[in-house]
């Protein structure tokens, strides 16, 4: 991945495909090279970011991709796949719980917005 930082917020472009087999989905997911991710969109509030930010990059990229591909699953299933992938990644249970709660409580607007685009461009500092 390479960092295409946008207005001080890291946006990363996959330079090779990211493959993950999900038991939840019963299939392999392939996030294609060129896909853009901001990883976990943890608010930059110091304590919250210290606890939950800059972790679980592979799982977050998979989750971002699912948010752009509504034909694969619904929002709740995408969030469950995030939880599954974080477990596979070895993220501690307390951190998984916090990140999962964050996407369940605060992810609806991203689900609605991301579903309208492919995740391969940046417009006004946002992935579209």
Task: Write up this protein.
The protein has 128 residues and is of the alpha+beta class. Helix content is 43%, strand content 16%. The chain has a 3-stranded antiparallel sheet. Strand 3 and strand 4 form a beta hairpin. Helix 2 runs antiparallel to helix 3 and helix 3 runs antiparallel to helix 4. The chain starts with a strand and ends with a strand. The N terminus is likely disordered.
The percentage helix is 40-55%
Q: Termini separation (Å)?
A: 18 Å
Kindly state the mean pLDDT as a whole number?
80
The residue ranges in which pLDDT falls below 50 over 5 or more consecutive positions are 1-8
What are the secondary-structure elements, in order, as H or E? EEEEEHHHHHEE
Radius of gyration: 14 Å
Beta-strand content estimate: 15-25%
Count of strand segments: 7
Q: What does the main sheet amount to? A: 3 strands, antiparallel
Q: How are the strands of the biggest sheet laid out side by side?
A: 1-2-5
How many helices? The count is 5
Structural class assignment = alpha+beta
Give the overall shape: globular
């Amino acid at each position: 991945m390479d960092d295409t930082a946008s207005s001080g917020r890291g946006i990363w472009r996959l330079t090779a495909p990211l493959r993950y087999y999900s038991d939840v989905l019963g299939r392999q997911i392939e996030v294609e090279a060129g896909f853009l991710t901001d990883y976990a969109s943890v608010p930059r509030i110091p304590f919250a970011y210290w606890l939950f930010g800059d972790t679980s990059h592979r799982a977050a990229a998979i989750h971002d991709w699912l948010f752009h591909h509504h034909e694969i699953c619904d929002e709740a299933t995408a969030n469950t796949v995030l939880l599954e992938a974080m477990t596979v990644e070895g993220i501690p249970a307390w951190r998984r719980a916090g990140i999962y709660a964050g996407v369940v409580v605060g992810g609806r607007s991203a689900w609605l917005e991301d579903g309208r685009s492919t995740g391969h461009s940046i417009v006004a500092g946002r992935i579209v």
